[in-house]
Amino acid sequence: MSTRVDEILSWYPTADPRTIGNLRRMLVHGRTGGTGKLVVLPVDQGFEHGPGRSFAANPAGYDPRYHAQLAVDAGCSAHALPLGACELVAPRYAAELPLILKCNSSDSLYVGTDPEPAVTASVEDAVRLGCVAVGFTIYPGSSGRNRMYEQLRSLARDADAAGLVLVVWSYPRGSGISKDGQTAVDVVAYAAHLAAQLGAHVIKVKPPTEHIESDQARAALDKAGVPLGTLADRVRHVVQSAFDGHRVVIFSGGAAKETAAVLEENRQTALGGGFGTIMGRNSFQRPHDEAVQLLHDVMDIHVGTSPS
Amino acid sequence: MSTRVDEILSWYPTADPRTIGNLRRMLVHGRTGGTGKLVVLPVDQGFEHGPGRSFAANPAGYDPRYHAQLAVDAGCSAHALPLGACELVAPRYAAELPLILKCNSSDSLYVGTDPEPAVTASVEDAVRLGCVAVGFTIYPGSSGRNRMYEQLRSLARDADAAGLVLVVWSYPRGSGISKDGQTAVDVVAYAAHLAAQLGAHVIKVKPPTEHIESDQARAALDKAGVPLGTLADRVRHVVQSAFDGHRVVIFSGGAAKETAAVLEENRQTALGGGFGTIMGRNSFQRPHDEAVQLLHDVMDIHVGTSPS
Amino acid sequence: MSTRVDEILSWYPTADPRTIGNLRRMLVHGRTGGTGKLVVLPVDQGFEHGPGRSFAANPAGYDPRYHAQLAVDAGCSAHALPLGACELVAPRYAAELPLILKCNSSDSLYVGTDPEPAVTASVEDAVRLGCVAVGFTIYPGSSGRNRMYEQLRSLARDADAAGLVLVVWSYPRGSGISKDGQTAVDVVAYAAHLAAQLGAHVIKVKPPTEHIESDQARAALDKAGVPLGTLADRVRHVVQSAFDGHRVVIFSGGAAKETAAVLEENRQTALGGGFGTIMGRNSFQRPHDEAVQLLHDVMDIHVGTSPS
Amino acid sequence: MSTRVDEILSWYPTADPRTIGNLRRMLVHGRTGGTGKLVVLPVDQGFEHGPGRSFAANPAGYDPRYHAQLAVDAGCSAHALPLGACELVAPRYAAELPLILKCNSSDSLYVGTDPEPAVTASVEDAVRLGCVAVGFTIYPGSSGRNRMYEQLRSLARDADAAGLVLVVWSYPRGSGISKDGQTAVDVVAYAAHLAAQLGAHVIKVKPPTEHIESDQARAALDKAGVPLGTLADRVRHVVQSAFDGHRVVIFSGGAAKETAAVLEENRQTALGGGFGTIMGRNSFQRPHDEAVQLLHDVMDIHVGTSPS
Amino acid sequence: MSTRVDEILSWYPTADPRTIGNLRRMLVHGRTGGTGKLVVLPVDQGFEHGPGRSFAANPAGYDPRYHAQLAVDAGCSAHALPLGACELVAPRYAAELPLILKCNSSDSLYVGTDPEPAVTASVEDAVRLGCVAVGFTIYPGSSGRNRMYEQLRSLARDADAAGLVLVVWSYPRGSGISKDGQTAVDVVAYAAHLAAQLGAHVIKVKPPTEHIESDQARAALDKAGVPLGTLADRVRHVVQSAFDGHRVVIFSGGAAKETAAVLEENRQTALGGGFGTIMGRNSFQRPHDEAVQLLHDVMDIHVGTSPS
Questions:
Q1: Out of B6, B110, D119, D187, which residue is the most buried by the measure of CB atoms under 10 Å away?
Q2: What is the ipTM of this complex?
Q3: Which catalytic residues are annotated (chains A, B, C, D, E) (predicted)?
Q4: The pTM is what?
Q5: What is the pLDDT of residues B35-60, one digit of tens each?
Q6: Which position among D93, D139, D190, D204 bears the catalytic label?
């Protein structure tokens, strides 16, 4: 179909042909289809923050189908969601857009010093619900990181056997690193590298800041004269750290913010060679039509049709 | 058979037909059979508190068959019990009443700051012993919650493959929440939601109090004007939080108390749309005939034939 | 063969016929064969204490075959040993005497506040090495007890599928109980009960003292007037706590001690209805011929042919 | 081919014939092939220390194929590497030299008080990538040691079923022992013994120092008059502790150091009966040709053709 | 390593990565390693013609290891042999050179009108014996051909799942064609094509003669003016018939003949673009050193270093 899509798919020579097919589904779907860019809508607020707090204000959101329809209306590449919601949504929406079953989550009735999510779904679940991918979050820097890496490898092996795409959220966080370190450019690059080494097909990280967490990393980067001044520069270093640019790396928008800030961040990400964005709160917490408009604007930036 | 039972069963469209059959067995069995209400007898005191402390006073209780016979005599919907007892009881009683194999338990030789029960039985055990369901307790709010969620998902997948009903005790408890928070209405609603998201067919929670643990939840509930003044109101909110009332949610009686208090609590539960009760210490710690009488009175309340 | 052996075997009606066959092998083997009594030789010092400390003094012990031969020479019912040693010993000795593969162990390079052994062998290993049983230690009272119970249940299921006997060392120890509580009569009885509930065929506990750890247990035992004055009395209560005497419960000798004390302890154990002993340091740390003599004396006590 | 190779292989009578074949592959490959000695190149710096810190200085190293080619150029016995790199390297190099898939690793974004690596690859991965062996690190002395032992046994069983060699890095480290204790001769001997008991075919330990960590071990070794004065003496004791010299024990070079020190250490190791070396930082952190020369010199020492 | 090897491997884009690795092993091994040429030593005369007839002349050949060692001594690319011999040879030689397990064979105690070999080994056997490939003979022209094609497809599926190379001997023979037709150029070309269509990675055929069996084939070849005058011409046509030269096609020497004839045949084969030879009787029925010399001469011809 698209030369760019074929080029991206050639980076996964040992992946199962069905996995390639499912990754192609995401890359050719929606408003950015065929451009090699991805814009994904994730929703797992009910499990993460509780039902009343998430849905009482806008009762339409109690029904998981509202979010799936929003992703369809905006022409997103895919929709990421947890097990319970997926069991309600999949019978209808698996045929409408690619679904990513989010396979681990954290609830907020207990909040420890280090994040350590629970595995709440499996590849077996994703297969029976018709999803094209499984999603999994790792928190490098957490005391519980190793358990997550092991769970991820287990999931990866199952996904490989079932031909599903593996999408990894790699979010450094926990007692091993500072608050600023969570988005430090060396740490984000390391996080992308770890996800690649652990077998991720699509990697999601946060936009990296100028902060450098590790003295040894700073010394090495300084000595080699790696440019890190702009967000675009830093995005470029992160993408290089994932097998020299041969993995799909997308960037999240983080906490809800002003529209202008969201758009500028995406412009820099696109300039640095990022492959798109995954945007939750910045989209579904706005009214439906406003959310669709913002998602469209972001898509235009990534495919290069935005007036900028 | 019964319009109400069929309606309830229609809420589980993706469940295995054998699971539906086993859930139907519980819903048509005993004195409340066909009404859509469940009254269950659970006994696991030997493992939880030790043999001498539990059985020395009434040596009849050393024999697990005493409790199974009590459940039969009272016309309970089902009997929940641990592995060792089940191996003795099942050959005779699996044909007499639905058995729920309790798959995790805690002993009291070590009591930690956060509850974290041991998995002591499996779906494989339940199948070989002829049980219709497996039971599992999760403690949201415990530092060990995630391990429980993962064990639950594993059990759920096995139960699905074997066609067994999944009964989840969802009891918020542990260092993540306050003592009052264990029965706070927002927390109990969250607990019911988590159990539903994790795939429970039948959910057991505690009667919710007026306390609200989370400020964000209070803000959202206040803003939306959700009525929470009476136990019946709160039961209604909890039932709604479990997929808008499309899961069977039953309420426990908690610590042993006066007969009048037990009956009043069940009246409120029934009024709020609860699906019944699971009552251990309040029944089997009384003399046999008194226990049968109390269970009958509670059943009458739930099926609406009580003078009230 | 033996009326007593057949009677004992009748207590396990749901066990796999191969399990029954293997339990029979232990009960008919060696010098106590056919009497319903067991005297077992366990050796895992290399793993537990290190090679130099265990074997430098008597280099013959570097070779695991020395201990297997000792068990043969003394006519023991069985020999318990860890994986590595078993891989060297089994090709020859599995045909000479029943082998119990010890499936968990602790090394002493790290000693934590609560015991939590590592699982170092599996039923699969026991099968390929020709063992008749697997052995597993649980430490009720340890913060890690639940992990052990779960590992034990997993082992039990595998053993059941493979037709192996399950021998459980149930040693209360850890931060949940006092030092004296480790051998308190109520605690040892509870430990035997837990092992029975978890599916053990043969249970090994320590000789119980007069100490009672739990106030609730003391109240219940006092009220019921259970006699606990002599070691024989206490052994009787412990045996009763394991399904009213319908499980094989044997008692260990503990730390190395004088010959007279060893013999007296075994006399009391036999008098109270214990099923024999498992004796490591008190035998293999003596010279070969002295060890054989002591084991013979103990066997004579248990089968009732000792002059006493 | 070689009498010595056949002799070594005879020490593993219960190993799968394919495992023997793969161990033979390592023993007949490369410049030391047929001598019974092994010189292995391990590289997992990207995962352990991060991409920028490891590869920014010499961008050739960003490509894992550089290291595989170095191992070929130097005639190493085998190359050890982690999953992600192996997926890139294996399609070409599995046919060129024996590959050891490193199945656990630690990243440095979180550094706890006790080492506890994550399992990042499996035997299934090793099989699909054409490796001859799996590698695994245990840290006796760590609070997490038991988890590692259990993961190792699980890996060992899978490796046995697939016919792969099991290479164990046994590095005492953690809060259970002192800093000096990590290389104490009694501790290194214990570490080698544990690896043997856990089923390792090839054991890698650090060169032991004269320090003795355990008083009981010192007493036993002193009493038996075991000579420990030279590194060669201590290597001899360590090799004896691994089933009296019937396991392949190789020694690592540790931190980067002067060439002369590396060579002297290897001379002592060879003199004491060590089976070779595994040398990472001391080789691949040098320029290519210098690294090849050093590896050749070390190989000459171990096969006895060095002028010394 | 070799551009030519990589080019050849690129012709198998859907093969399992392990299959590619094993094919690479054959292509980089031995005296022709890296040139894209293969010289294979096959020995299955004992099964096909009987032991005395095959080995009495040179009793060394009674021991299958003689042939494996001959293949090593001569630097062959691989050695093909039947099950029984492989079980003796594999433990040592699988580490020394690539082994091809021959999976079907015919004995000559019964000779039907049409050849129909027995399946005498499986992929499972090849895996447990450490082989890199399975070999299988089909006889197009036989009334039993379809059964062979089906057995071949079954073997191919197993080989694909296990990552083994599939080597197919395609020998037209049987009541469907004339005696001369067995080596007719159109028939050999057809046989090579059938093998390619059935999934062979490496195809072995006989040197084609000028005879043309099919009138329709002759008409088409004549019309197109395909040159078939020399053996080189005909080899070129056969290679072209196997996916236009994108399958490895090697040629057999057939019955024992004079050295000069063997060499000339190989010169023509090399000239016509053949990928090498598989030479049994013409090598192993000569004395050892003479056989090595002949194999070396043939290798030199194929890699183009021969004087002639």
A1: D187
A2: 0.78
A3: 171 (proton donor), 204 (schiff-base intermediate with dihydroxyacetone-p)
A4: 0.79
A5: 999 999 987 776 777 756 766 666 66
A6: D204
